[in-house]
Amino acid sequence: MSRIDGRTPQQLRPVTIERGWSKHAEGSVLVSFGDTKVLCNASVTEGVPRWRKGSGEGWVTAEYAMLPRATNTRGDRESVKGRIGGRTHEISRLVGRSLRAVIDYKSLGENTIVLDCDVLQADGGTRTAAITGAYVALADAIAWAQGRKLIKPTRKPLTGTVSAVSVGIVAGVPLLDLCYEEDVRADTDMNVVCTGDGRFVEVQGTAEAEPFARDELDALLGLATAGCAELAELQRAALATTLER
Amino acid sequence: MSRIDGRTPQQLRPVTIERGWSKHAEGSVLVSFGDTKVLCNASVTEGVPRWRKGSGEGWVTAEYAMLPRATNTRGDRESVKGRIGGRTHEISRLVGRSLRAVIDYKSLGENTIVLDCDVLQADGGTRTAAITGAYVALADAIAWAQGRKLIKPTRKPLTGTVSAVSVGIVAGVPLLDLCYEEDVRADTDMNVVCTGDGRFVEVQGTAEAEPFARDELDALLGLATAGCAELAELQRAALATTLER
Amino acid sequence: MSRIDGRTPQQLRPVTIERGWSKHAEGSVLVSFGDTKVLCNASVTEGVPRWRKGSGEGWVTAEYAMLPRATNTRGDRESVKGRIGGRTHEISRLVGRSLRAVIDYKSLGENTIVLDCDVLQADGGTRTAAITGAYVALADAIAWAQGRKLIKPTRKPLTGTVSAVSVGIVAGVPLLDLCYEEDVRADTDMNVVCTGDGRFVEVQGTAEAEPFARDELDALLGLATAGCAELAELQRAALATTLER
Amino acid sequence: MSRIDGRTPQQLRPVTIERGWSKHAEGSVLVSFGDTKVLCNASVTEGVPRWRKGSGEGWVTAEYAMLPRATNTRGDRESVKGRIGGRTHEISRLVGRSLRAVIDYKSLGENTIVLDCDVLQADGGTRTAAITGAYVALADAIAWAQGRKLIKPTRKPLTGTVSAVSVGIVAGVPLLDLCYEEDVRADTDMNVVCTGDGRFVEVQGTAEAEPFARDELDALLGLATAGCAELAELQRAALATTLER
Amino acid sequence: MSRIDGRTPQQLRPVTIERGWSKHAEGSVLVSFGDTKVLCNASVTEGVPRWRKGSGEGWVTAEYAMLPRATNTRGDRESVKGRIGGRTHEISRLVGRSLRAVIDYKSLGENTIVLDCDVLQADGGTRTAAITGAYVALADAIAWAQGRKLIKPTRKPLTGTVSAVSVGIVAGVPLLDLCYEEDVRADTDMNVVCTGDGRFVEVQGTAEAEPFARDELDALLGLATAGCAELAELQRAALATTLER
Amino acid sequence: MSRIDGRTPQQLRPVTIERGWSKHAEGSVLVSFGDTKVLCNASVTEGVPRWRKGSGEGWVTAEYAMLPRATNTRGDRESVKGRIGGRTHEISRLVGRSLRAVIDYKSLGENTIVLDCDVLQADGGTRTAAITGAYVALADAIAWAQGRKLIKPTRKPLTGTVSAVSVGIVAGVPLLDLCYEEDVRADTDMNVVCTGDGRFVEVQGTAEAEPFARDELDALLGLATAGCAELAELQRAALATTLER
């Protein structure tokens, strides 16, 4: 059985991770999973939100959004509607939690890093691409802050790496990294966030059409774990080069 | 090892399902999981949202909210703040999706059922209590509508039953149905929604402190499946009695 | 002439005042006037709003709201609409003013008490039930704060008691404590708030259909004064028992 | 005892009612009660709100607002804050109800009249000035609509006249038509809306400091009734002249 | 060729500048350009916005708004809609910038002056009338503050005067100070703000129908410069009299 | 005198116009003026806003926004703040007006084209880059719609071309196409929108520090006209190639 774009069920789309995309942000990554393109900018500011002041600990948060025409039909701007939709809220929270899973707040010191993940073009898997790219932007921002002595160079604010991928069951077959057309036809859709050592940070599975059985869940988890490992390798490779500033 | 309230790791809190709580709603259930109390009101209206008109199919949606002093410290009202928070949005969407998983839209006809799940008192597991109670309110509302011939009495709009429970790992031990104090100390927190036949509708696991390994995930899924089955039995028992209107 | 529910014109509906309803709030009362049920939670916090800091005086305020399906047909949530309606605003202000009429701010010290009055089920007279119940919750919250020495135990922050009732003219007859069906058919509708010593805190009369004459107003004031006195007695009785915490 | 501005307790401030103030509105009145100046514009539009369509009946509504510097210290604009305050809401509703008390919806036909009452300068009693002026603007707008045959010239959409005044107890003395300085020092503050035949449309009394006794209430009602009658006479005089358009 | 109201192309409408209109504001001007009437109130407060604290410099800002029935058909209130429209935002910013062009922040000291420009009646050119009137209100407010020693009497916070006028091309002819009917028919519409010494503060030209050529632009700039000079003279004359407070 | 980036006063920054950037939009252009990068997506939909229905005429509108980290320091998202800022509103309106200046609504038929201009990286002149790029996206969208027969292929909905550039006076010297650092130091800042035949669509000049004299204005207009002509040439060149879809 061959997929719509010719991939095998276990195959990721072509993934690119372009660092230093924007000249302003302390970490800036344009990540693409096939035709899904997300710009992940990390902004470092001294200080923390009020509820955390004096704790000696830092904070990491994220905001996810889509350009109005990132999708096939234009969506209304949330700024014009005057409120953030439920989906946007949910994904922003997911990205933030995923990154915080590999942060040592003490080592960060009282600094805040905001990850802005803006989807420039969407073709399925935007939230998992956002997490995967944001991790790299976060790493670059921390390196920048350590270079400036904002964060002590001897500390290790990152306790690991984190990547994410979507999996789903389409026409009875478990598939890795769904593109939009597959996503629409999926019976079950799952987003999985893993650390580089293969443990889980988030598992979010949803029955879109039919409820799913335990063995299906097991198959999806296996696919996702392998996919995340492959993405972790791509993140490591991307970060191995020197970033010109 | 004994839990804070003396339960075994595999034990649910005392669960009560009180039908017919409000005199106005077509289905009205006060559900409690220990000290967590959620009022689930189902409202039936003829017609469907605009995007569904003419389809011959119905719609089911949900709104979740907390009273300001449902929790230990008072929270600001979202109506006063002028916007719904991310958590509220996320849970409302989860409840709605979970119920729609057992709905046959065709059998419902062009009717809409809204489930309002208002947490009167919170002690952990409010979203899973909401889903479990809302299912019963939904069943009552459908019965009411079939009694009025709004929905054809020969149709079966419910394709199954749905219940939900939280599980988590506290101090290394997988526990069923966390109360608030356990939830706060959990390393991993998972909400699982199952159909009465033991399949999954939603699996949402989050590493609160440490990422979790596959065997931990497996243990949690096992606990949750058993807990949901027990809750399904309680739902069936509650619905077995005749509701005075 | 007999009323819809068999009462005499001068008769209140059955009133119950259940203290200690919620385990979290410092004062928590479920009050019912017939089928109208309002949960009144009092929350004590140290400190006062900014404009009052350093004055040595406390503050009491209230927020009133209805659950979406408290009424016969479902209302949209104000949190979802993103704005508080005029009626909600107006009643919240009325409840707050009514309670402040019996508060000695100096004795309260720089503490704030917020009264949340959430209508769980509505059948007319929700605002007057809210005031009557909130007074009892307020008294419990003050006792709690005095027990904790947050408020000096020798002070008397309450200068009196306060209760409220609706009256109206239906088919030419002045009636006490209108239920919803009576309220809808009333020519004149009046809400009266009295102190325990029989003086007025608020008098709000509105001609719903026909303007009303002075003798009608006098008759309504007489009915309301007697009703408030009866409610004050019920409040005293409710507070006479010891509250288990 | 003489008042701050030399009036007797039973005396209104100088009242002026200037018709035809704006060239655009169908009825436009600049009303002043002493230094309180309110511009009342009546706008006639064909058609009614959706919930009233097909009824053959019209609708009258009102919106009250203050310019930011109508008062002694500048207030923030509600348009900039993005929400209407409770006081604004409450007064808008009061003005609308008061005018509707003298409207025969059938005679109005399916037309809507909106009364915009904008306080240009405030010195106490803005809501009662607004009602008194808005009645005159409403009468002019109806006459305009009858001149254009929008409303049948043979009908009488106005069933009476309506005026309003504030009263209060200051230093133990009941006073008519409080200016701002008196209002601030009042123990009790009452707004009364009467029809031209001396009946009540609204009675809203509030204990600002001390609860008030029945005889104080009676004294205030007497003062207010006389004040409203005087205002009704001024309205009649103002409407007796021919309005140039 | 004669204009709709009989003016020559180079002629302003009758302009009046009435100082001391409101008793509360530190500067209060009712300005009229023909039937356009704008109330400009200047409010002085000690202190500056947070971002300017400690700078020793003051701040001047402006808010522009229209009454709902200032225009021929009633517009919805922005406070009720819950958001400021683009046009309102744009004009508020223009008025603020124009006034700041003649302010020496150092001489102002850490004081803030807010100019509220509320259009009571509109007939074209409301923004330019607002600027012209607001300048006079600003001058009065500064004089008031210097009288109170809030601003040092020896300083000159105003570095010049500022006035504004609209110009446009109607049926091929460049016209000064368009009234509403001319504005609607204009091919090109331009607002010009000048200092008293004839230099430009703002030039905003828009092709409403046809793009305009350089010579047309030159003609419009000539007309506008002359108009602004005439308005500057009227401002000087208005400020030459003594203002009774 | 040499500029910060070595340009002559009359020299544009390197300009690139990349068509077909996004695969979803009917017209999609990534335009860059030096380090300023704006993504301009044109979305075609059948039908027009309600107020235009049945006219046989189309509509073109635009929305401008900045990514939070497009600038040197992160800005809050307007969607999170719940309201659009004045600057955003103003520029959106400017872009829309500029494009409509070259549209023949009749030829467009009852279709709507929305131009989304999202600034990915800002370095001065974002609004003028947006207009220049949006024109090309608009042209591509119209060609697409004519290819689909949505718009009659024989019609010419574009009556000309439109481009825009900023000019300003820095340290006494008039400069073309200011980068951010120049913009900050400019005494006068002007944005000029021209048609391809050299006429003006918009002229918006603002004195940032000193008011400007007529000869300075003339010098700026000259620079801007030449710059727009050069940009028009670049637009023509970009559109001369065949776009792969």
TrEMBL record, chains A, B, C, D, E, F:
Domain annotation Exoribonuclease phosphorolytic: ranges: 11-141, 161-226
Residues annotated to bind phosphate: R87, G125, T126, R127
Kindly give the CDD domains that the UniProt entry links to this protein.
Answer: RNase_PH_bact
Among its keywords, does the record have ATP-binding?
Answer: no
Output the superkingdom of the source species. Bacteria
Q: What is its EC number?
A: 2.7.7.56
Q: Which residues form the signal peptide?
A: none
Q: Which Pfam families match?
A: RNase_PH, RNase_PH_C
Q: Which reaction does it catalyse?
A: tRNA(n+1) + phosphate = tRNA(n) + a ribonucleoside 5'-diphosphate
Q: Which GO terms describe its biological process?
A: rRNA 3'-end processing; rRNA catabolic process; tRNA processing
Sorted keywords for this record are: Nucleotidyltransferase, RNA-binding, rRNA processing, Transferase, tRNA processing, tRNA-binding
Alphabetized GO MF terms: 3'-5'-RNA exonuclease activity; tRNA binding; tRNA nucleotidyltransferase activity
Q: Which family does it belong to?
A: Belongs to the RNase PH family.
Q: How does it assemble?
A: Homohexameric ring arranged as a trimer of dimers.
Q: What exactly does this protein do?
A: Phosphorolytic 3'-5' exoribonuclease that plays an important role in tRNA 3'-end maturation. Removes nucleotide residues following the 3'-CCA terminus of tRNAs; can also add nucleotides to the ends of RNA molecules by using nucleoside diphosphates as substrates, but this may not be physiologically important. Probably plays a role in initiation of 16S rRNA degradation (leading to ribosome degradation) during starvation.
Q: What is the protein name for this chain?
A: Ribonuclease PH
User: Which species is the source of this protein?
Assistant: Streptomyces tagetis
Lineage, uppermost ranks: Bacteria, Bacillati, Actinomycetota, Actinomycetes, Kitasatosporales
